[in-house]
Amino acid sequence: MNKKHSSHEWEEILGSLRKSGKSQAAFCKENNIPLSTLQYQLLKKKEKNTSSNFVKVPFPIERTNPTVLRIKTTYCTIEFSDHIKEEELTGLLRSLKAVSV
User: Fold this and answer.
1) CA-based diameter of the chain, in Å?
2) Mean pLDDT of the 61-71 span
3) What is the DSSP string of 30-63?
4) Is residue 64 classed as helix, strand or coil in its secondary structure?
């Protein structure tokens, strides 16, 4: 019988997969999880992470003038002009997110 896992349990399972360094198939075999179920959960997590165009910013944002946006953290200050393209900003924020994890 297949056990239904809560979303919290899936977060832990996916974290264990990542830490294990094993292939999805090997991990599933060891943990008695159908490979298709694991892949569905991975896809669901990916869609959840990319579904929003908004980013939570837990640090102060200043507008020094109408054309400059400054974000200060403990480690750096980032300034954007109003001429930055959306795809450039998106790429930068994704890169920052990747290195902050």
Assistant:
1) 62
2) 67
3) HHT--HHHHHHHHHHHHHHHHS-S-----S-EEE
4) strand
